[in-house]
Amino acid sequence: MGNLAFVFPGQGSQIVGMGRAVYEQSARAREIFEEADRTVGYELSKICFEGPSADLDSTTVAQPAILTTSVAILEAFVESVNAKLGRRSSDGIEPRGVAALPAALRPRFVAGHSLGEFTALVAAGVLTFQEALRLVTERGRLAASRGAKGAMAAIVGLPAEEVDRVIKDTLPLGSAVVANDNGPSQVTIAGDSDSVAKLSEALAKHGARKVVPLRISAPFHFPDMGRIGPDLAAFMHTLHFHEPVVPVIANVSAIPHPSASAIPEALVRHLSNRVEWLRSVRYMAERGASTFVEIGAGQVVNGLVKRIADVKLLNVSDPLSIAGALSTLRERAAAATSR
Fold this sequence. Notes:
By secondary structure, the protein is of the alpha/beta class. The protein has two domains: 4-146 and 225-338, Malonyl-Coenzyme A Acyl Carrier Protein, domain 2; 151-215, Malonyl-CoA ACP transacylase, ACP-binding (Alpha-Beta Plaits, 2-Layer Sandwich), CATH 3.30.70. It contains 14 helices and eight strands. The chain has a four-stranded parallel sheet. Strands 4-5-3-6 form a four-stranded antiparallel sheet. Helix 13 links the parallel strand 7 and strand 8 (312-316). Helix 2 (27-40) packs antiparallel against helix 5 (59-85) and helix 8 packs across helix 9 (193-206). The mean pLDDT is 94.
């Protein structure tokens, strides 16, 4: 269609039961979960489907679990599209991700919110699912064992610039930051636990409508998390980064990654730099993306998108929503053709 953007959720979107429905109905989704279990060496699928939630909220489990669930749902979506069209690979090699979609349904951009950027890289063919899974598993392990300790909280009702001013007036330099610029009046803060608590109280007094502690066990996009960057960079030397089949918007710059070779360095900065989600969504919308399709558990990302751009929203998280999204996309394609 040329006007689609596929977006993927990050940590905090996890919920017990996620991915179970596509696992039960999609052969390709089952393959993804089974590959994940083999790769990580434990029953990750069982934790996704049955919990307990305390395990699913742990950074070391949440990161591979969210990636796996989102990729499984994407592959179930692709499988459903191609089944309806009767499309099969002619050379026996089945493409994966958005490369397997017909041109009319291939997105103009892909992007992921925070951890979701790794799913976007799989969707665009930059990394295989297995390599991305190994990467986020190592990222979670490093963050838990050697990364910064602290907390994160969502702040609703204040723009990033105002939160930055309150941080400057309230806390010592570097003790807390705006980690995600999520919208015109919504941000996420990160820092050491005491600073996040003190800042949350100050922001509530300053006019924030809502302050919500996040179910995240480590403060990502926080400068001190950069200490694990060299180890993560060394690990990425074992992976193979390919040129994306569609542009992947980088969280740290809000523009497409310029090349495959530039991606590892951006992923290192991703640990300690702000997620520029507001600018990312505006970039895609201003360049022709008029329908955003969130692929993953829940509707967290499109809840942010709707406050940024006047675009159409679709959510894909289970077989029912896959069918609904396909029906909607076919209707819009038919309407566009008849004009």
